[in-house]
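so im writing up the methods section and need the Alkanesulfonate monooxygenase record in one place, dumping it here so i stop losing it
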Amino acid sequence: MSVDIYWRVGTHGDQPSLRRRVVSRGEWAPVVPGSLAPGVRDGERDDYSYVEHMGDVARASEISGFVGGLLPSFPNTDDPWATAATLARETTTYRFMIAFQPGFLHPVQAARMSASLQRATGGRLVYNIISGGGGPDQLWWGDKVEHDDRYARTSEFLDVLRGVWNGGPFDFDGRFYKVEGAGLPEGLAGQPFPEIYFSGSSRAAIDAAGRHADYYLSWLEPFHALTEKFDQVRANSDRTPKFAVRIDVLARETEEEAWDEIRRGWDNIDPTVLRGATGDSIGWQRSQSFVTGAVNGYRDLEVTPNVWGGFHLLRGGPAFGLVGSYGQVAERLDELINLGVGAFILAGVPHLEEAYRVGENVLPLLRGHDLRIDSPLLEGTPS
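--- predicted struct ---
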């Protein structure tokens, strides 16, 4: 089984560790002594920009064996389309998984932008289609479309985008989009169509993923819950689906070292306050349902061995990730592969240093699988 492993490239600054939830890399927080990208030298900002730091993360993860990087998109991030175009020259085969909400671009314009990036990069664009989690963030974009209708709009968007991809004329008359005689021009038409990673945990999302997704992408959940979700996707798919999981990883030489890092972060938060998403995201609601009973310490959020549901307290993002020794984390990833997972988006804080750590110490331990990787760090290691 072929497995693609991506890394996450933070587009909104970064923390120095999980021990304190404070941004010290990038201009998303005040630039003070101790900051990076930019830093402060002799009382003045240096010339090292955050986009250069993102380039370092992309190069580090490419060197370490990751096939590409996820570029997230939120109100407080750099734009992933512009970032991908900027970083493409910093890498050679590295794929750029652009997260975007279809409602904010017209599908014909999205097709033109995508085909231009494909032509410029040799086909290294990948889509992470998200339809929005509702609440204040959705309104920040000016989007008042209701939850299920956002997925209906996404389906139409992808129908139109595919329709114009190889040239025209293409006509479409739907609820959200109408085009007549549309099609990409010669030179852009016929570029490799980007793989689609489709996110969403609701029935509407699963139905749409069944029509359009190359990979159904889920946050990490307890493995039994992922198995049930994958079965739902299979039952609602027009074709044989493939699965991907987005996972934060905290791996160290020993399990004790890994959990000690979590403890240090836990000591700096108020465990009674769950800092999470608001709105109508079913994925977030699901993630909170897996933790039952009183939470008196950080190990109470370990719902199954090495699967910890407190990452959202230490950094922004989903709740669940893997904590353990290098060998334990590799074993859990192997278990997921055996459940049918064909791709991962891994992440760690800080992104730069953890890309090297996970690439050097975890990826080589994955066994019995055809990892689509190209890295000098992994030459001669079991695949």
